[in-house]
Please model this.
Amino acid sequence: MTTQQKLYLCIYNAIEVLGWSWILYISISHYGDSSSNIKLWNKIWVPLFIFQNSAYLEVIHAITGLVRSNPMIILIQISSRVFICVILLSLPSDSIESSILLPYTFISWSIAEITRYSYYFMNLIGYIPYFLMWLRYSLFVVLYPIGISGEVHCTYKVIVYSMSNPKLWSYILPNQWNFTFSFLYFVIIVLIMYIPGSFILYKHMLLQRQKMLNINVKAEKVK
Model:
């Protein structure tokens, strides 16, 4: 890796840490500000879209060999969250706000990403504290189920809302293209694939945790 490439990755990871720290601050401070009438979703959706979609750069990083990662796994992980962000736009803000799991989803995403990007940044400069290594490969054990629960709940709310609004984001016949698209059925299909897919990813992360922490333990013994 060249110096310029390393500098670029350092800047990218540092910006992501700051961005997700901002999202975490918005999520937590929202419930400490009783005087505000602005809903959490209205506060958070812009930075959430910016920093969640910017993660697609990591797919490019993996494809071009800039980082050693599986681009398909990265693509699936990122797209699952982007999917949630996009379908939430179909709901009225009151309906989004009524989801008791949504704030925990945003907080779990934020903590996971702050830890992940901090780990990547420290790895680039050549020093990873053990506590950061442990957090990187351990926090997901709790955060992932919380995040997935919120994502599934939000998808369910979209399905329920779409059932009472069948034309929502749909393209129905007859039309000049002789093509039909049902947003409701699309979301249902994604949810059906989403649930088993999340278990596969969780298993993959558990294997990664075992591999990385064992490597770290062996390194400490050598020292």
Summary: The CA atoms of residues 134 and 213 lie 7 Å apart. The first helix runs from residue 3 to 30. The mean pLDDT is 86. The chain has nine helices and no strands.
